[in-house]
Amino acid sequence: MSLPLDFNKITLHPLAADCPLEGFSCGEPGIDDWVRKKALPRHNAFKARVTAAHDDSGRLLGLYSLTLILERERDLRSSEGLRAFIQFGHIPTLHFEYLAVRQSIQNGGLGSYLTLDAICHFADMAERTGIPILTLQPLTKRLATYYGERNFVPYGSSGRMMMSAETAIRLRDDG
What is the pLDDT of residue 3? Predict the structure, then answer.
Protein backbone atom coordinates (compact mmCIF):
# COMPACT_ATOMS: atom_id res chain seq x y z
CA MET A 1 0.00 0.00 0.00
CA SER A 2 1.47 3.33 -1.03
CA LEU A 3 0.76 6.82 0.27
CA PRO A 4 -1.45 9.07 -1.87
CA LEU A 5 0.46 10.94 -4.56
CA ASP A 6 1.00 14.66 -4.14
CA PHE A 7 0.61 15.87 -7.72
CA ASN A 8 2.04 19.26 -6.73
CA LYS A 9 5.38 17.51 -6.22
CA ILE A 10 5.36 15.66 -9.55
CA THR A 11 7.15 17.19 -12.51
CA LEU A 12 6.69 16.23 -16.15
CA HIS A 13 9.44 16.81 -18.69
CA PRO A 14 10.94 15.23 -21.80
CA LEU A 15 12.95 12.08 -21.12
CA ALA A 16 16.64 12.86 -20.56
CA ALA A 17 19.85 10.85 -20.25
CA ASP A 18 19.98 11.38 -16.46
CA CYS A 19 16.53 9.80 -15.93
CA PRO A 20 16.89 6.65 -13.76
CA LEU A 21 15.31 4.06 -16.07
CA GLU A 22 17.13 0.95 -14.89
CA GLY A 23 15.18 0.32 -11.67
CA PHE A 24 11.79 1.19 -13.12
CA SER A 25 9.09 -1.49 -13.28
CA CYS A 26 5.42 -1.19 -14.17
CA GLY A 27 4.93 -4.96 -13.95
CA GLU A 28 4.40 -5.53 -17.68
CA PRO A 29 7.62 -7.20 -18.95
CA GLY A 30 7.32 -5.94 -22.54
CA ILE A 31 6.81 -2.35 -21.43
CA ASP A 32 9.52 -2.56 -18.76
CA ASP A 33 11.97 -3.85 -21.37
CA TRP A 34 11.01 -1.01 -23.73
CA VAL A 35 11.51 1.56 -20.95
CA ARG A 36 14.96 0.27 -20.01
CA LYS A 37 16.31 -0.44 -23.52
CA LYS A 38 14.43 1.60 -26.10
CA ALA A 39 12.72 4.64 -24.58
CA LEU A 40 15.77 6.92 -24.48
CA PRO A 41 17.29 5.85 -27.85
CA ARG A 42 13.90 6.30 -29.59
CA HIS A 43 13.37 9.66 -27.88
CA ASN A 44 16.85 10.89 -28.80
CA ALA A 45 16.39 9.77 -32.42
CA PHE A 46 13.00 11.57 -32.64
CA LYS A 47 11.27 8.25 -33.35
CA ALA A 48 9.11 8.93 -30.30
CA ARG A 49 8.63 11.72 -27.79
CA VAL A 50 8.74 10.41 -24.26
CA THR A 51 7.46 12.41 -21.30
CA ALA A 52 8.68 11.36 -17.84
CA ALA A 53 7.07 11.99 -14.44
CA HIS A 54 9.38 12.37 -11.44
CA ASP A 55 8.77 13.03 -7.77
CA ASP A 56 10.66 15.76 -5.92
CA SER A 57 13.53 13.33 -5.14
CA GLY A 58 14.04 12.64 -8.88
CA ARG A 59 12.60 9.10 -8.78
CA LEU A 60 10.91 8.06 -12.04
CA LEU A 61 7.22 7.49 -11.32
CA GLY A 62 5.93 6.94 -14.84
CA LEU A 63 6.16 7.93 -18.47
CA TYR A 64 4.36 7.92 -21.75
CA SER A 65 5.44 7.87 -25.38
CA LEU A 66 3.87 9.49 -28.43
CA THR A 67 4.91 8.73 -31.99
CA LEU A 68 3.71 9.72 -35.44
CA ILE A 69 2.34 6.88 -37.56
CA LEU A 70 0.35 6.43 -40.76
CA GLU A 71 -2.88 4.47 -40.44
CA ARG A 72 -4.32 2.70 -43.45
CA GLU A 73 -7.42 4.30 -44.88
CA ARG A 74 -9.28 1.00 -44.91
CA ASP A 75 -8.84 0.68 -41.12
CA LEU A 76 -10.43 4.10 -40.60
CA ARG A 77 -12.97 3.98 -43.41
CA SER A 78 -15.97 4.05 -41.08
CA SER A 79 -14.67 7.15 -39.27
CA GLU A 80 -16.44 10.34 -40.26
CA GLY A 81 -14.57 13.42 -41.41
CA LEU A 82 -11.22 11.80 -42.20
CA ARG A 83 -11.44 11.65 -46.00
CA ALA A 84 -9.72 15.04 -46.38
CA PHE A 85 -6.65 13.68 -44.55
CA ILE A 86 -6.07 10.66 -46.79
CA GLN A 87 -2.78 10.71 -48.68
CA PHE A 88 -1.80 7.67 -50.77
CA GLY A 89 -4.18 5.44 -48.82
CA HIS A 90 -2.98 6.54 -45.37
CA ILE A 91 -3.94 9.05 -42.68
CA PRO A 92 -1.35 10.66 -40.37
CA THR A 93 -2.03 10.02 -36.68
CA LEU A 94 -0.34 10.56 -33.37
CA HIS A 95 0.01 7.21 -31.62
CA PHE A 96 -0.10 6.91 -27.83
CA GLU A 97 2.54 4.19 -27.90
CA TYR A 98 3.27 3.45 -24.23
CA LEU A 99 2.00 4.44 -20.81
CA ALA A 100 3.81 3.07 -17.77
CA VAL A 101 3.38 3.78 -14.06
CA ARG A 102 5.70 2.41 -11.37
CA GLN A 103 4.03 -0.73 -10.07
CA SER A 104 4.16 0.34 -6.41
CA ILE A 105 2.02 3.44 -7.08
CA GLN A 106 -0.45 2.11 -9.64
CA ASN A 107 -4.13 2.95 -9.12
CA GLY A 108 -3.15 6.22 -7.44
CA GLY A 109 -4.17 8.47 -10.33
CA LEU A 110 -0.83 8.95 -12.09
CA GLY A 111 -1.91 6.94 -15.15
CA SER A 112 -4.96 9.17 -15.58
CA TYR A 113 -2.81 12.26 -15.03
CA LEU A 114 -0.32 11.13 -17.71
CA THR A 115 -3.12 10.14 -20.09
CA LEU A 116 -4.66 13.59 -19.78
CA ASP A 117 -1.25 15.20 -20.36
CA ALA A 118 -0.83 13.10 -23.53
CA ILE A 119 -4.31 14.12 -24.71
CA CYS A 120 -3.46 17.80 -24.07
CA HIS A 121 -0.20 17.45 -26.03
CA PHE A 122 -2.17 15.90 -28.88
CA ALA A 123 -4.75 18.71 -28.76
CA ASP A 124 -1.97 21.30 -29.02
CA MET A 125 -0.31 19.41 -31.87
CA ALA A 126 -3.62 18.94 -33.70
CA GLU A 127 -4.27 22.67 -33.61
CA ARG A 128 -0.79 23.42 -34.95
CA THR A 129 -0.48 20.67 -37.55
CA GLY A 130 -3.94 19.37 -38.37
CA ILE A 131 -3.23 15.77 -37.31
CA PRO A 132 -6.80 14.49 -36.98
CA ILE A 133 -6.63 11.58 -34.51
CA LEU A 134 -4.79 10.07 -31.57
CA THR A 135 -4.58 6.28 -31.69
CA LEU A 136 -3.61 3.54 -29.25
CA GLN A 137 -3.62 -0.23 -28.86
CA PRO A 138 -4.84 -1.34 -25.42
CA LEU A 139 -3.05 -4.46 -24.14
CA THR A 140 -6.08 -5.88 -22.31
CA LYS A 141 -9.88 -5.63 -22.25
CA ARG A 142 -9.58 -3.88 -18.88
CA LEU A 143 -7.40 -1.21 -20.51
CA ALA A 144 -9.81 -0.91 -23.45
CA THR A 145 -12.53 -0.13 -20.90
CA TYR A 146 -10.21 2.37 -19.16
CA TYR A 147 -9.50 4.20 -22.43
CA GLY A 148 -13.15 4.02 -23.48
CA GLU A 149 -14.03 5.85 -20.26
CA ARG A 150 -11.60 8.56 -21.42
CA ASN A 151 -13.38 9.10 -24.77
CA PHE A 152 -11.34 6.77 -26.98
CA VAL A 153 -13.47 4.75 -29.41
CA PRO A 154 -12.69 1.46 -31.16
CA TYR A 155 -11.81 1.34 -34.86
CA GLY A 156 -10.63 -1.28 -37.31
CA SER A 157 -10.70 -4.96 -36.47
CA SER A 158 -7.69 -5.34 -34.18
CA GLY A 159 -8.99 -3.68 -31.01
CA ARG A 160 -7.26 -0.38 -31.67
CA MET A 161 -8.83 2.81 -30.36
CA MET A 162 -8.81 6.46 -31.38
CA MET A 163 -9.74 9.95 -30.24
CA SER A 164 -10.55 12.80 -32.61
CA ALA A 165 -8.74 16.11 -32.43
CA GLU A 166 -12.06 17.80 -31.65
CA THR A 167 -12.60 15.56 -28.63
CA ALA A 168 -9.05 16.11 -27.37
CA ILE A 169 -9.37 19.90 -27.71
CA ARG A 170 -12.69 19.84 -25.84
CA LEU A 171 -11.17 17.73 -23.02
CA ARG A 172 -8.16 20.02 -22.78
CA ASP A 173 -10.24 23.18 -22.76
CA ASP A 174 -12.73 21.82 -20.21
CA GLY A 175 -9.80 21.22 -17.81
Answer: 59
